Task: inverse folding
């Protein structure tokens, strides 16, 4: 297999960007045009589809019933939903990656991350702790942390 010369290596920052409001007049932003969350939460497509559903229902109500209230509240509705997932994505990113911060390295940090994972409360929609919610995925995250794979 032919190989090429590596011309650039860098750590890509995991970022979160949200435009608020997501509407202005007749302009409505949906999906990545309105918000980008770190990939650790794996919620990008979920949030985009949520925006699309809220927007579609709002347009249907406006066209079929002349009711613009859902369209007028589109941004607030989506932002309320989005902020919960944004909090989760930031939390899980911080939990799983040290982002170059030396204070996050080492066995002690991994133990703290493991304790946080098992204890909760979990940021994001629904609240609760890892043990109370979706514990299969949470214990998988805990296993990854305990194994030392994350840094």
Result:
């Amino acid at each position: 297999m032919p190989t090429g010369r590596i011309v650039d290596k860098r750590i890509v920052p995991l970022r979160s960007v949200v435009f608020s409001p997501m509407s202005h007049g007749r302009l409505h932003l949906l999906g990545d045009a309105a918000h980008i969350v770190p990939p650790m939460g794996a919620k990008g497509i979920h949030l985009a589809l949520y925006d699309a559903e809220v927007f579609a229902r709002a347009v249907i109500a406006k066209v079929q019933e002349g009711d613009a209230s859902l369209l007028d509240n589109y941004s607030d509705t989506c932002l309320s939903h989005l902020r919960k997932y944004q909090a989760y994505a930031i939390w899980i990113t911080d939990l799983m990656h040290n982002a170059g911060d030396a204070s996050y390295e080492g066995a002690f940090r991994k133990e703290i991350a493991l304790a946080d994972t098992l204890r909760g409360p979990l940021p994001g929609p629904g609240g609760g702790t890892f043990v109370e919610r979706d514990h299969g995925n949470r214990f998988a995250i805990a296993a990854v942390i305990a194994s030392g794979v994350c840094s």
